[in-house]
Amino acid sequence: MSIILHIDSSVRAAKNPNPDHDSISKNIARRFIDSWKRNRPEDEYIYRDVGVNPPDFITQDWIGAVFTPEEKRTPAQRERLALSDKLIAEVAKADVILISSPMYNYGMPAQLKAWFDQIVRIDKTFDFDLSRGDYPLQPLLSGKTLIVVTSSGEFGFEKGGIREQSGHLAPHLRTLSKYLGADTMYEIAAEYQEFGDERHHASVTNAKKQAESIALELSDSKPAPSFNREIGHV
């Protein structure tokens, strides 16, 4: 049995009275989950909508608690880290992690960044050793598959695209993926939302098809490839 951790981060609901306000990224991610569950209904599923229910931002007191040896933490410090501990435990137990995110101001939503800030934590998801020279940080988790679903109002953020230098969402997620323990990463992108033309409709349709295809591929109990695959730029 596999364990799937699904993180949505759009502030929009998947379904709204006005369909034009439906979250594109959430609906593409839902297509992945529905396809997976049809193939493997017995798998454990963990869901968090950090767009609607964001985790707390980290604070100076949070950092102080993190850098206090565990055996010396006060009850208040342990309570302050309780959410972080829970979120990290969900990541650690997951075999497959699905993250959906819209592009807000060319990067990730603050709510998703807050989730990562609670998770990327010394001696939990990485360790630090100056004897490693210029690369003292080393991830502690491994062996996971990450699927990233992104949506954007513009287009051309891929390598060689006309807005390659403006797109900070996917590159940021790639950088942080190692702290989730992702050895394999799939990317699905829906673009052109602000244009609302045939390119947008084709992009969303294509992204949903890719979500289904990847879900079926990964849920078919076949070994996942050990390299990154970038999918979904249209």
From TrEMBL:
What positions belong to coiled-coil segments? Answer: none
> What are the protein's UniProt keywords?
Flavoprotein, FMN, NAD, Oxidoreductase
Can you quote the record's cofactor note? Binds 1 FMN per subunit.
Q: Which domain of life is it from?
A: Bacteria
Gene3D superfamilies recorded: 3.40.50.360
Q: Does the record bear Transcription in its keywords? A: no
Is Oxidoreductase found in the keyword set? yes
Q: What is its EC number?
A: 1.6.5.-, 1.7.1.17
Looking up HAMAP family in the UniProt record yields: Azoreductase_type1
Q: What is this protein called?
A: FMN dependent NADH:quinone oxidoreductase
The species this protein belongs to is Reinekea blandensis MED297
